Structures are given as structure tokens and as C-alpha cells.
Amino acid sequence: MSQAIPASTRQFRGKLARTTLPTLFLTLVSIVIVGSVAYFGAKDLLKKQSFAQLVTIEKNLESQIDTWIGERHILLYHTVNESQLSSTIEHFISLDEQDPTFDSVGEEILTGLDLANSQRPQPPFNYFAIVDKDGEILTASFSDWVGETIEAEPFFTSLSTKTVQSEIAYRLHPFEASDIIIITAVPIFAENTSYSGAVVAITRENDLRTFLQTAQIYPASRAYFVNTDEIYLGVSKLLQNVVRIEPSEKQKQTLNAGIKEVRESGEGYPQADYLSFNSEPVLGTYTWIQEINSGFVVEVPTVTVYARLNNLLPIAAGLLGVTILITGLLFWQRIQHIVQPLTEITTAAQHFSEGDWHKRADVTRNDEIGFLAHSFNQMANELSSLHRSLEFQVNERAKQIRTAAEVAKIATSTTNLDELLRQTVRLIVERFDYYHAAIYLLDKTKDNAVLKESFSAADTDTLKPGLTISLASRSIISHVSSNNQHYIANDISADPLYIPSTNLPDTQSEAVIPLSVGDNVLGILDVQGNQLNIFKPDKVITLGMLANQIASALQNMRLLEATRTDLQATAALCQASYKITEANSAKNILEALSDILKQSPFTHAFYQVELNSLHSISTVDPSEEKVLSPDQQIPINTQKLANAFRSSSSITIMGNERVDGIPASLMRILQQLGDQAFSFFPIMPNDKLKALVILGSVDPSRFTPTNLEPYSNLTKITRTALEKVAALETIQHQLTELESLNAVSRSIATETDINTLYKIIHQQINQMLGEVHFFIALYKPESDTIEIPYIEDGTQNASIAPFPLGKGLTSIVIRSNQPLM
Length: 821
Known about the structure:
Layout: H1 16-19, H2 21-81, H3 85-94, H4 102-118, E1 127-132, E2 137-140, H5 154-157, E3 165-170, E4 180-189, E5 195-204, H6 206-214, E6 222-226, E7 232-235, E8 242-245, H7 249-265, E9 271-275, E10 281-289, E11 294-301, H8 302-305, H9 307-311, H10 313-353, H11 368-413, H12 417-432, E12 436-442, E13 448-456, E14 468-470, H13 476-483, E15 487-489, E16 509-517, E17 520-529, H14 537-582, H15 586-597, E18 603-610, E19 613-621, E20 626-627, E21 633-635, H16 638-643, E22 651-654, H17 664-671, E23 677-683, E24 691-697, H18 705-750, H19 754-769, E25 774-780, E26 785-792, E27 797-804, H20 809-816
Antiparallel strand pairs: 1-2, 1-5, 3-4, 4-5, 6-7, 6-11, 7-8, 9-10, 10-11, 12-13, 12-17, 13-14, 15-16, 16-17, 18-19, 18-24, 19-20, 19-21, 22-23, 23-24, 25-26, 26-27
Helix pairs in contact: 2-10, 3-4, 10-11, 11-12, 11-14, 12-14, 14-15, 14-18, 15-18, 18-19
């Protein structure tokens, strides 16, 4: 076998280094992704840390403001309610402004309040005022405030709740000594606990500035208050004093709604990022300080939060570029280190594929590439050996194919089964150097395998045709027949199913192949060798091919033979149907049908239906050429059997199939014949089951519509013939009755002797019905009696004396004027 050189070789123009660039790209992309994830993770961490610091600041300042306001509340409350001013203030509020002591009492109260305020190291209040329950200022630190009314302010309308309250106000009229003030008020209650007025203390914004500046932990951070009028109050950058500041629209939308929600819920330090003053992005937290009735916001620009992180970006970008450059260079150098030896191995492989069986690769490395070169050299050595062995195997396979072709040629060219089997076993032994080959065919019942042909290479006596092996025995042949699978015994001494043969003493191994078409096993191919382990898988496949060809040829020959037989039987059926149509009685028709069925190639059973039983006319097995169970009587329910054929002119049953209406006793008798399929053809003249024809076959495939149609037509012809005979008998009987009636009518018209007329009537009835007992009774109305002038009981004619009309059958017929059965 020579090495074929390909006409053209595919050109591989790609470079391994180029094809690995996507890997490098993916590696660099992974680095960028990791860096990006780290950057955004750090950014998110800074954001969370900033929010946490802002919340901490808010909590600390809220605590400080609560302490700061609480001290003022306590001071003002004690000054108003527990000092000696308490009664003076209540008296003052109750005085009429026209009272001459009104002004002096007012001055006394202001002096007392200033004295209590000045006793503190840092006086908490700057101004004081006394208002009545209607909000009118009665006296104040500034005389311009006296007489002004502040009842419209929400802050003052809630003073009746008996608490000290504070609030940050912006330009609250008339307290305009400073733009931003802190109002603290204590309600005054009369002796009957009704609200009568309040003491108002005013603090300027200096302390608020301290709180706001303390909250600015970042250089650019900002803190501010939002009062109940949604006015934003913060420290000016230029003068460092508390002033009104204008928020952005986004800022107002976010904070106003958020502060309102916190005010209503009374808890939480919400966090938000929004555009602050001058549309600057910030991170902010806010809360509601109940003690001063105002919101408190702390925010820091995002650029300040992320400043240190953003400063690292140029450095990180530079490091990333250097990493990409170094990685690319190292990647390229390592690829070249791999590509060069691979190219050398590829060149060696190309020479080897072109037929240079001595070409080998140089092994100079100890890594995986060196292992690859070593593996290539091993493969080349094995391929060289394989090339030499393949030439031998191809020659063997060619010989096997030629043998299979010869068997196929014989199978398609001959119609002689014995010649086919004889040539096949001879070719198997001679071409494949086997010791013995034999072909067994299964008998009709498939209970035995019968040897048809055998051939041996040795000079010993071979097996004689006709040798029978029971398939119920424990042997290789029975095992293969039962399982429809080949069986290989490469060492018969260790095989439990092998049965030694004195005719084949040198057998060492055996292969048994089923001759089957589908699931239908037709026979066995038995091949034996005088060496151990000679049945290799490829040879078993070849033997299987030969077995399939033999089985197909065997099936075709059987079908051809069956077709010839069926054609002959069909011709005989057509010719014999004439006898049925010419028969003139039901008995002759059934006898003619029985004679025709005896010529059928199928097993048949022919039954005549009687009352609740089937009477066997004939049961014939053509292969055995004998009648089985003559005159057999089978008890059945004939009505149920007839109902089974109401909707079908025939019924076919395969194997052990059950059909309603077909009695099990009948099926058991039929299955004793060894058939595998049955067809039932009822003969039902005038829809009454008269007879039943049953055909049987060991080969269900023979029951085709074409093969069964002649028998269906034959039963239809029989049914028609029976109906014709029955109709003729009915017509003949009716003609006889008419003739008898006509004869009686003529006698009545001509006969003058009444006794003679009685005899004539009796004779005509006997002609129609046969010999019967007969009498004539006459009714006499005038005497209400019956007389019988003529009677014959089978022995003699006689007469009976008249008797009264009574309850007997004769009296009933006369009285009812109706016939009676």
C-alpha cells in the first residue's frame, strides 16, 4: 500500500503570536476592569465614610444645641416662675394700661429680668418683652416694640401648651434689632390656669455662628439652619456672620421635603447627594432640631471628598501604561520561545504526511514542547507499523468483501435454496480458513433447528443433513435462536453452552450467527475454527453480513414459493366458486366449500353453526396433509359470536391477541396447530350466522389483504348461494301452499258430498304440512253446541257427538274467531 500525496495542501498564514493577541487584550482588559472596580469601590467607601462623619457631626451639634437651649429654657423658666418676679409679672399682665403704676411695674419686671440674665458669666439673652394673650407687647427692652402685635406668628399661637419654646427667626417684626434672632418664650398662666400672656427672651445670632463654624470639618464644607419659613441661614464666607443664603432649586426640592418628613416622623438622619449653592454637587445629611424648631443641614462638596482619590488617577494611569507595555513585551518574548520549536515540529509533520516515513522531530528540550516532539516521534513510529499492518488488513477485508459479493451474487441469481446454502458454507470455509461451517433452519413450530447444509475442511466425516437440535435444550444454537443475537465462544473448553461433537474433534472456537429478518429468526449459521480466539470483531461483522444476505435470500425464496402457492390457490378458488353457485341445497353448498378449502395453502378450520355449538366440518393442516379433530363439537354462545361480526366481514388475530366474541375454547384448539395468525370469515345469510371459516398461518406476514381477499369473496359467494337456496325453498313452499288452496277451492265449488269435502281438505293440508292429526269442528248457535263431523288421529276416521261450548281450545277459537297456536 503506497502513501497517497494530496493534490493540494492548505496554507496556514496566521501566526501564533497574532492569534494570541486576543488573550493579551483580554488580560489587559481584566487589569482595567479590576482597576475600575477598585476605583469605584474606593469612591463608594469614601462616600459612605463622609456620610458617617456628617451624621456624627450632626449628632454632636444637635446634642450641644439641646444642652445650650436647655440651659436657656431652665434659666428663663426659673426666672419667670420661681423668682419673686412671678407674681409681679402676673399682676402686670392683669393691669390696665391706664393704671398709673403700669409703666413702673413694667420697668421693674425688665430690670429683674436683666438682673437675672447678667448674673450669668455669659448672659444668654440680649432683649426681653412681655406680651399678653392676644399677642400685644406690653413692655420691652426697646420702647419701639411696645404696642406691636405678634399674634399672627405661629410660634406665639402655640404658647398655651405650658412649655418653654425656642425658634430661629429671620427679620421677625417688630424684633428687628438683628436680622437673625433666637426667640425663647415662657407662657404665663393665671391662678385659674388659663393662659394670660408670655415672657419673650431674644438672643442674637452670635452663638449660632459658633455652632455652624464647628460643623465645618472639611475646608469647603458648610452647615446651615432651615427655619419653619424654609429660610436657609448660614455663615457668610466674607464676614463670617450668620446671614440668609439662597439655595438652588434642586437643593430646595431635596431638603425641604426631607426635613419635613424628618420633622413629622421625629427620627433619622437622612443622607442625600444633590446640587447645592451655585449648582455644586455635594453630599449632605440633615435632621430636625425640635429644641429650636428648625432643620439643621451639614454638607460637603463631592470634589473635596474624592480629592485624594482623584489625585491618584494620573499615577494609576501611568502605572497601567507601564504594566501594559511590560506585559506585552514579556508576552511576545514567551510566544516566540514557544512558536519556534513548534514550527520545527510542524515541518517534520508535513514531511511525514507527504510520505517521508523516516522523518522525525529533534528532541532538545525537557518541557512540554520537548514532550510534544517525543510524542510525535512515537506517533510516527506507530503509524509506520500501522501502515504495514493496514496493508495486510485491507487485503483480508478485500477477501471478505469478495466472498460476501459472491454469496450475494448466488443469492440473487439462483432460486434453488439447497444450492445457495451449499455454496455459502463452502465459500466460508475455503475463503476464511475456517474448520467447519453449517446452516440450520428452524422448523414450522420453531421448536427445532434442522441441519440443511454443512462443509468441513478436514477429511473427517461431516455432519449429515437432517440432524435435529431441540431449541429447548441447553446449547449455543438454542441460545442464539431464543435471543436473536450472535454468540462467540473463542475458547470452547471454558464455554458452558458448547456441546462437543465426535464428527468435529479439532474444534477450538465457535461463532453462531442468527439468520433473521427483523425479529423473525429463520435459521442459524454455525462456524467453527480449529484455533483459539480466531473470531475477531471484524470477522464477526463479515459473518453477520453473510448471515443477513442468506436470511434475505431465504425470506425471498419463501415469499416466492408462498406467492406461487397463493396464486395457485387463488386460481383454484376462482374455479371452485362455480361449484358453489351451481349447488341446489345448503348441504351441497357447504360440502362444495369444504372441498375448496382443502386446496388452500393455509391451515383451515370449517365449522357449521348449530344451536349454542360449532360442529366441525373439516380442519386441515396442509403441511401435515391430514384432518385434525374430525366431527368436533365446540360449545359456544352463537349469538355472542355472531355479534362479533356485525361490524366487520372478517377478523384477523395475531399471536395471543384476544377479541371479544371469539371464545377462548376455540382459540385454544386453533393454537394447538402451531399457527401464529388466524383470520375468521363468517357466513351469515340473512344476517344469521350459518357457518365459520378460519384460516391459520405460522407466518403472519402472509395474511395480507391481497392473499385474504379471495377467501373473503368466497365466503360472500357462499352466503349469497345460501340466501338464494333459502329463497328458492321459500318460493317453492309458497307455491305448494297456493296449489293446495287452489285444489280446496275447486273441491268446494264442485263437490256435493260434505264428508268427501272433509277428506279432500285433509289431504291438501297433509301435502303442505306433512302427515298431521286433523279434525273439523262446527258450531251450532241455536243450541250453543259444538259438533265434530270429521276427525283423524292417525289410525282411523271417526266422529264425536255434539258437546256444549266450554273452555277448551276449540271453544276458545270459536268464541274469539282467531287462530290459536
